[in-house]
Amino acid sequence: MPTLDCLKKFLKNRADLLETLEEAKINNNISKTESQVGHNTKSFTKHHTPKEPTCSICKQHHLLFSCERFRQMSIEQRIKEVEKSKVCSNCLHPGHDYKSCRGGACKYCNKKHNTLLHLEAPKSSSVTLTSYTQSKTVLLSTAQVNILDKHGKPHTARALLDNGSTSSYITRKLCSKLGLPIHTIDATVTSINNQCTNITENTNIQIHSPHNKNYSTNTLCLIINQISNSVPHTYIHRNTIQIPSCIQLADPDFNIPAPIDLLLGADIFWQVMGTGKIPLGKQQPVLQETELGWLISGCISDIQTQNTNQNSSFFVNQISDNMNRFWELENISTPSDISQIAQQTCEEIFTSTTTRKDDGRFVVTIPFKQSPECLGQKWQSNDLEILQKANLLSNSLHSTINLGTKEPSKTLGIYWNTNQDTITYSTNIENSVSDNITKRKILSIIGQIFDPLGLISPSVLEAKIIMQKMWSLNLQWDNHVPHDIEVLWKKFIQSLSALKQLVIPRRVFYDSSKHIQLHIFCDASQNAYGGCVYVRSHTTKMRCMYNY
Q: Record's Pfam families (predicted)?
């Protein structure tokens, strides 16, 4: 349902559009009255009817701004049509350009272009580090290339050539459109100011040049959500740049702001580079010959207005990630939204096949996978009979599994010994001790604790209390912590080494259990509260077993 703000914006845009069209109407009748001195007065009226213009789109007798098909186009398509029709980009009339036009400016930004050609400035959610004002625009090296999809069909994509990048990148949107196979990786990309971003997927693409049929290349691209904002950041008039008519540009729409689908790094940059180079003059860009066509890049004098550029930086905060993971492990799990395809399929099978028998019992179809070959091939169990039937006994005996292999480095990690069916804990405490104890280091170590089962919650509780005290004191990230917190932290670090001796049986109930009792204890204080459940069972041999 549209909001009131959307309705107001629509009505305002509509009113501005109608006002622009009304101002552009020309009075085709010119009246002139001539009076002579004397008793006889004669009046002359001259009617001048100019030749009716022809629309370049629908070939009807009206001006371009009155064409219904023109107004239904996107703003980018309107800009291309104005350049093609060679009419003034300010009043949309033929016979002059925007520099000599006496018409009014855009009603949105007050610049020298028609309101119908106004492009909204892209809204950025990035963190602005610096901003400055300059009177020139820098063109980046962009090209339109053909990329083959999974069926071998070419698709046009807009690429940015960057010899300062060691890798090539593709947007997730374009990769999904092409249907290319995606491979899982674990890579870290370091950018400006030594900021790191984790990349988890890549794909192989095949690039063809639209201007050179003999050129094609394959390259590996990392998959990211967005490469950059629209390039260039503002619309540039083509008539401000004198480009020779014989030149085939790699990106014919270099002057129109548009998103980047592909970034080609240094491995492709120097491969496509040619020998031809044409400088276009002082404060003008340079034409560079490549296999993809002629690139146009460099500074261009902006005579229309001054532009404010913003330099932004994105980075991944490792401490923030560790803390988020820590709280996710400690929080009580809640049902998540069904978003994965497999979960949706199970939900559909349940709702469509569930029936009720006469005796009142419900019957539902088992959700078998449609592709059995996609089943997992890695198994682990503490049951020898299962391992023997699965022909995996030789690879599974005396195996200890790290249950936190996806974690970068753990101060405290959990392991499962499948031979003894026990759970143990390992700690690299010697790597966590430091003379300079700061809030940043403490939170980083706490975030690396991996205890999804909560078996050592009493020990982890000490770290939570320390973290709570630091937040209440509003400590700086890199300042040394107070003495009382330092004492508590060193005591907690020393206690972690004792966890190496802790061996917890994973199994709670035994096959021979005859009588089972639950003994529940709970307690609370000003700092925390907790509970523990003990399972007391008697076997058939009257042996009493305890587990918690």
A: Peptidase_A17
Element (H or E) spanning 298, and its range? Answer: strand 293-301
- What are the residue boundaries of the structural domains of the chain, listed by start? 53-120, 134-305, 319-327+378-507, 509-548
**pLDDT tens digit string along 335-384?**
555 456 777 888 888 888 888 888 888 888 888 776 655 555 555 555 55
- Residue 184's DSSP bridge partners are 201
Angle at 90 between CA 89 and CA 93, to 5 degrees: 75
pTM: 0.37
Give the Cα separation of 200 and 149 in Å (integer).
21
How far apart are alpha carbons 364 and 347 in whole angstroms? 11
Percent of the chain with pLDDT over 70: 71
User: Residues 1-14: what's their mean pLDDT?
Assistant: 77
**Cα 511 versus chain centre, distance:** 51
Are the beta carbons of 231 and 237 closer than 8 angstroms?
no
**Cβ distance 32 to 45 under 8 Å?**
yes
Q: Which residues of 323-344 are buried (b: 16+ CB within 10 A; e: fewer)?
A: bebbeebeeeeeeeeeeeeeee
Q: Which CATH number fits domain 134-305: 3.30.470.20, 3.40.50.1970, 2.40.70.10, 3.40.50.300?
A: 2.40.70.10
**DSSP secondary structure letter of residue 306:** -
